[in-house]
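Known limitations

Files may contain more than one protein. Parsers should not assume a single record per file. Below, a two-record file is shown to illustrate correct handling: read the sequence, read the token line, then continue until end of file.
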Amino acid sequence: MGLFDKLFKRNKEQQEQKEALDEGLKKTKEGFFSKITKAIAGKDKVDEEVLDNLEDALVASDVGIDTTVAIIKRIEERVGRDKYLGTSELNRILQEEIMSMLTDAPSNEFETFDLPRDKKPYVILVVGVNGVGKTTTIGKLAHNFKKSGKNVLLGAADTFRAAAVDQLTIWSDRVGVPIVKKEMGSDPSAVAFDTVDSGMSRGSDVVIIDTAGRLHNKYHLMEELSKIRRVIGKKMSDAPHEVLLVLDGSTGQNAIEQAKHFTAATQVTSIAITKLDGTAKGGVVLAIANQFKIPVKYIGVGERMEDLQIFNKAEFVDSLFSLEK
């Protein structure tokens, strides 16, 4: 395949991903703009009433109170500089301010399914409550890493539920990557240790370890996460290299509550937000990115394996504000 063919293929894939993102955010966009349109109906100038209505609209779109207040404050500052700011400019201003807010959060270290060359295997510990799409996210991650030429190894450290091991095994078979697992009730830390050990022996590029879908309000289960981290570190001193928290975007503000508990209990370094295609609550992405200052690294916008996308702030905001669909 020549250089031109590779560039054409890459551009085609990027276009397909953007179309999937547009479609996946359709419900969020429709709800978002209907609320904003209602907030400024009959107004020709951004005044105090418009800002109050806009604030209500953003909160109702699951952008969150703290993030909404920050956005309104920025718009107020712009209104203060330009006394005759019209409501016709509000979409553009909102887009600029949201982009600025997302840019203020730490940027993703990687923009593709690539990996740092000085960390092999690159160990990802995946956490999150049951039902958020954690196992599916792991499977899709494995697919995308394998597609990019990486040797992938999975670890089934959720030993509290037989179904969890079975589900991850199905994904390992589907994607065609090996898995380390033990019988139900085994020590999760031992599974994690063996997975890293096996990954080092195999020369794996990336190791992805599942953990129990523990409830965020049961602190002793959170303690188990700390134990897993310590045990992994005994085998590979700087591992895990990434702690990925998976959140269900369709749960709105509940996802934020989960993020609060997990970030307090363990050192979360990145976030994946799933199920954005089936909800109008995609505004929660803005709230999470702004509130926790932890990179939203992946978003799920569909059922296909390719629909787990690396989060691109510019494309997300563009899809959220595009009016042609």
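...continuing to the second record:
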Amino acid sequence: MQQDQNRQGRRTFLGASATAVLATGLAPFADASSQDPKPMERSAIRRVRIPRTGELLPSIGLGTSRTFDEDPSAENADLVAVMGQFLAWGGSLVDSSPMYKRSEAVVGSLCKTLGRYDLFYATKVWTQEGKQAGIDQMHHSEELMGTPRFDLIQVHNLLGLDVQLETLHQWKDAGQLRYVGVTEMRDLEKVEELVTQGAVDFIQIPYSVTDREVEARVLPACIEHNVAVLVMRPFQSGRLFEAVKDKSLPAWAADFEAASWGQLFLKFILGHDAVTIPIPATSKPHHLDDNMAAGVGPALDAAARAELVKLVEG
């Protein structure tokens, strides 16, 4: 649930076509400020465990808000490259929603084009029109995304919460769904309540270097109650890049194998013990590569996280 990232501070694409990138396994891009660009070898990103089950998932996911809202019958070459490169890095979790207009259908179209269906499929139910409306919507999402069973369905923005959450648990009990979740940006008290009640396996919330409200209560509750955390808006809709546009990447970033501000921002998020997977969204192949590289090497430790906050907010 994140707009396409601001180009400031990101890497710039230096040449090869999407087909060549996928064929070679290399991502030829470099920091925009570099005078000596070097290709970066793509390697599989680290995996993390879902707290409730111990299931392993790759540590960087893919959001689709706005960025995948395209004609699913069109060629969409950039999005084919984005999805192909996401999978080549070892990515798995793709998150969508009926709120995102054509995004679910585009995910299904891309998987068909690539002949790849080995995703961790996540979407949302987004209606307050009652139980049957929610059921119909979720079945439609299955058809659009091309999966017979979702791994994760979340009640989007807590809309119709009690009714839809009841259905999700019924689907899970019947084996029609693997995990139950909610998403919310504002009512964090309610999110915490659902976590402590054991009502959800996943939550999806905003969290970033400059949006740390969830650190006070929600994230500690998730650790205590074994709830997985997906992070939306990791770049604050590009505002984080604007905040550092005139600043040089700190030398200590190399200690954490971070070669861009975007990677530092994602490694900050991954450095919190409660976080499972951030889900940045993009329609640009070079931004996808930059995002996924944050899943290689260590996350930021406590000292580096504090230093990054000072750099961004100072």
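Parsers that stop after the first record will miss the second one. For reference, the second record is described as follows. Residues 1-40 have pLDDT under 50 and may be disordered.
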